[in-house]
Design a protein that fits this description.
The protein is globular. A five-stranded mixed β-sheet has the order 2-8-7-4-5. A five-stranded mixed β-sheet has the order 24-47-46-26-44. The chain has a five-stranded mixed β-sheet with strand order 33-39-42-37-38. The protein is mainly β. It has a domain of about 200 residues. A hairpin with a 4-residue loop joins strand 11 and strand 12. The longest helix has 17 residues. This is Macroglobulin domain-containing protein.
């Protein structure tokens, strides 16, 4: 007994970190909760209603940024300022990429809109993880209704103590960010004053409205911030709360490539723990003891991953108490180059562009590129950011980042300080430590769509609305291409149907077995109904832009008037035309046989795999179980153009003269969790049910499947006749290619023709390699008017 007591004492005396290891908790969380990232390359950011928006989606894992092939569907939405979706689509994904287009209808109001994209798996996490980008749409068929402009000093300032805390008598670095009404950083002067109006410290921004200052909260003092704009107008803002006891952290970067993290505390703590990780991949874990209320950690920058790393401080009980971010500029990169083979181009002339891609060592890179070429005017702002800045920077920060390319391309001490100010003011992580350290992890509600789109729904009691448990449900798509999906409701009444090759608009028929007629089926909205906090900036339109807008509108109308057919060409996706049940055991084209007027005679005369018998309570239909050479005891699943018919009497009422094909599965068949004793499928000549009406309680719905890809129209002026055509070519977007595959030498070539519009044109390229190197390239060229 005494020995057991000694062992218990020794176990209890072990340091807490040996029992609770944040590093192992983080690794377990990363393995369980895969982080996905999406990047959208949109052809432009300014549109007039009536134009097409083209996009390319890159899909990578959130830690190493390598292309993923897990989720096969991306959801894309265009939201207005009230978070109302005005455009929605579902895009098929393959090999880490997808692409498509959206027609901007003339019913939209002018304004700034938010384009966002996400997968089904990403719905399990905050919508802050979704890709978001602001675009401007102007409807030239409506009068502009501009909101009244707010006072230019509608300035928001926020203060961010390094590590997250201000503690009495402990010195901290305090970062700040000032943002104007347009969402951009503003240059204001400020001061921190105490309750006696004594100035404690003065501050001003360094770059993009961000800056920092040192601050030590004194005993018994209260503080506020006073701001003054360029016009001398003054406003007052509150200052962060001050803790009486707690922890602070400060990071200092040395010239020998090391980071020193200093932790101070006035809690009389004995030890403190530091965990460094880059996008959930743990880099370093260390524990230090306090000496004179101070503990220090050293990290070699070479051990950190590229992009943003998190440095989290835990107390002795492994509770996170401080955290800050550090940004490491990337050394691995994708260098893209684009060169015109000719100098200045003329209108309606062929342009040839040589594309090359290399890694940081100069070695050819096998990259997948997307390319947009459009005319620059005063409406279209310069593109800000690319796939590299998104993956390594903005996707891991909360809110919008102004001019993200600055932190990658500029150099000098000011850039390093501005970058660190950004880390301090927009620090954020794609998880919560409370979730990571939770002992019983919750089950994710949304599964990744690894084979195709999930159609989700619910079975509820028609009278009470309570969930129906364990009820079989069926979802079918009427037509000649037979599609049927089955599901059984769980304890919450939830059902889901995993579709495949589900493209374009469809008519859906949802049913449950009539024996469960007290229940009904409801389909759920496949798009996420939670939103991030950032909204598009206030829409404003300068009168000086009236003429460029008119030209853009004329261009759009000319394209739609003269080239409508070319703009509406689609690429039918390659789908399996075989019915969901595969190759039937028996197949009959009824035109090859004697046409009998009733269905019973057809079964009796030349369908040996089916037996129909009339009983006192109605017809009984059985299918032969060929492997066991016996007829099944239960009725089979009977389909008419893919729609289940549960009443065998109604099956016998089908007019055989309207049926083109009859197929029979003479064995037990499984659809999802449902098992059928054989299957009989009737296909009508037109695939339109031939007048048959499903049960009155069936759910009939119009449903939009995956987007059918649209062809990008590129006119060719390769003959004198075409070049001399009198049809106007006022294209603003000269070329769009969602996927350019480079050869083994890292090269490719693009060809397109200029339009009738002269001026300056810009090309924007984004690309990524299989090993996660990402990069972008922008450039411009001139097109001159041909004088005839």
């Amino acid at each position: 007994m005494y020995a057991v007591f000694l062992l218990l004492i020794q176990f209890c005396s072990l340091p807490v970190w040996a029992q609770v290891d944040p590093q192992k908790q983080l690794e377990a969380y990363r393995n369980r909760a895969l982080q996905e990232k999406l990047f959208l390359h949109i052809d432009r950011t300014f549109y007039v209603a009536g134009e097409l928006m083209w996009f390319k989606i890159n899909y990578v894992d959130g830690s190493f940024h390598k292309p993923l092939s897990l989720s096969k569907v991306t959801y894309l939405e265009v939201l207005d300022k009230e978070n109302r979706p005005v455009l929605q689509t579902k895009v098929a994904m393959a090999d880490g990429a997808g692409d498509g287009s959206l027609f901007i209808p003339t019913t939209l109001a002018s304004g700034n809109y938010l384009v966002r994209a996400y997968t089904n798996w990403m719905k399990n996490f905050s919508p802050d993880y979704f890709f978001e980008k602001t675009v401007t749409i102007v409807n030239t068929f409506r009068k502009l209704e501009l909101p009244p402009l707010k006072d230019s000093l509608a300035t928001d300032i926020q203060f961010f103590p390094e590590g997250g805390n201000l503690v009495r008598k402990l010195t901290s670095t305090v970062a700040f960010k000032t943002v104007g009404s347009r969402g951009k950083g503003v240059d204001v002067r400020g001061a921190v004053v105490d309750q006696t109006n004594d100035t404690v410290v003065r501050f001003k921004p360094l770059k993009f409205g961000m800056g920092r200052f040192e601050f030590t909260p004194a005993e018994g003092r209260q503080y506020r911030a006073v701001l003054t704009d360029a016009n001398g107008k003054t406003i007052t803002r509150p200052f962060p709360a001050i803790q009486e006891q707690g922890y602070t952290m400060q990071l200092a970067e040395s010239s020998n490539g090391q980071l020193r993290i200093t932790v101070n505390s006035n809690t009389n703590a004995a030890t403190v723990y530091l965990l460094a990780h880059t996008r959930l991949a743990a880099i370093q874990a260390d524990q230090q003891s306090f000496r004179d209320n101070t503990a220090s950690f050293v990290i070699d920058k070479k051990t950190l991953g590229e992009g943003i790393s998190h440095l989290t401080v835990f107390d002795a009980s492994r509770k996170p108490v401080c955290e800050r971010l550090y940004f490491k500029r990337p050394e691995r990169r994708l260098a893209i180059d684009a060169k015109l083979t000719s100098g200045v181009l003329s209108t309606r002339e062929k342009a040839v562009v040589d594309l090359t891609a290399q890694d940081e060592t100069g070695k050819a890179a096998l990259a997948d590129l997307s390319v947009a070429v459009y005319r620059l005017d005063s409406l279209q702002p310069a593109e800000s950011g690319d796939i590299q800045t998104y993956l390594l920077l903005t996707s891991d920060l909360r809110g919008a980042v102004e001019s993200p390319e600055y932190y990658f391309s500029a150099s000098g001490p000011e850039v390093a300080e501005a970058t660190d100010n950004l880390m301090l003011t927009q620090g954020w992580r794609r998880f919560r430590w409370e979730t990571v350290q939770q002992p019983n992890q919750p089950q994710e509600e949304y599964l990744p769509e690894v084979n195709g789109h999930f159609i989700r729904g619910k079975i509820v009691h028609s009278g009470t609305g309570m969930p129906g448990r364990g009820i079989s449900s069926y979802l079918s798509v009427p037509g000649k291409h037979i599609l049927l999906y089955g599901s059984r409701s769980d304890s919450e009444g939830r059902i889901h149907f995993e579709t495949k090759d589900f493209y374009g608009p469809k008519d859906l028929v949802g049913q449950i077995n009539p024996k469960d007629s007290i229940f009904r089926m409801e389909l759920q909205n496949p798009f996420f109904e939670r939103f991030s906090s950032p909204r598009p900036p206030v829409f404003d339109f300068l009168p000086a832009l009236k003429d460029p807008l008119l030209n853009r509108s004329i261009s759009m109308q000319a394209q739609n008037a003269y080239y409508r057919g070319n703009l509406s060409r689609y690429q039918p996706p390659k789908v399996d035309s075989i019915p969901f049940y595969g190759i039937a055991n028996e197949k009959y084209m009824l035109d090859d046989f004697t046409r009998f007027p009733v269905m019973e005679e057809i079964f009796r005369e030349y369908v040996p795999g089916v037996m129909a018998r009339k009983r006192r309570d109605g017809y009984m239909i059985s299918v032969l179980d060929v492997p066991h050479k016996l007829f099944f005891d239960s009725s089979p699943m009977v389909l008419l153009d893919g729609v289940p018919i549960f009443s065998m009497d109604r099956v016998m009422e089908i007019d055989p003269r309207k049926v083109q094909k009859l197929e029979v599965m003479t064995r037990r068949y499984i659809v999802g969790p449902l098992v059928f004793d054989g299957l009989i499928s009737f296909t009508t000549y037109k695939g339109d049910l031939a007048g048959y009406r499903p049960d009155a309680k069936a759910l009939l719905a119009d449903y939009e499947g995956l987007q059918v890809p649209r062809d990008f129209y590129v006119p060719r002026y390769d003959t004198p006749q075409k070049s001399g055509s009198r049809l106007p070519d006022l294209r603003n977007l000269l070329h769009w290619v969602p996927s350019v595959k480079l050869n083994a030498q890292g090269k490719a070539q693009l060809e397109f023709y200029t339009s009738d519009e002269d001026g300056t044109y810009r090309f924007v390229i984004n690309g990524i390699t299989a090993d996660g190197r990402a990069g972008g390239k922008q450039g411009s060229f001139e097109v001159t008017k041909v004088i005839k």
